[in-house]
# Entry
Amino acid sequence: MVIRLGIIGLSAGPKHGRPSPTSPLSRAKAHGLPKDKGYSSPKDLANDPDANMVVVSVKSPLHKQLTIPALRAQKDVLVEWPFGSDLKEAQEIAGLARKQGVRSFVGLQSRRLPTLCEVLEL
# Structure
């Protein structure tokens, strides 16, 4: 199986977590993606037949609302840790993934950052 990612979170501006004033099309171009792969909504991305997995890489209060459309479209999802804003949200996301028959993953990418590892050793 070939994994074809759709990524929510390419819009961060120079200060992480702040939306970019640029359009989805210009963000797609900036990341070397085809023009038609810049989406204005998570539902539009979820409905793209070329994506079979969606990565949600934004601040955690938005995880649930941005993940649900992908799950409803029966896409696997990888969500940055924490999975939801609280246990209830995490259970709702995981429950919908199970119901839809898709996989949901939590990304813990920062736990191996060299800087973080060094701080933890102090």
User: Anything to note?
Assistant: The chain has five helices and four strands. Confidence is low (pLDDT under 50) at residues 14-18.
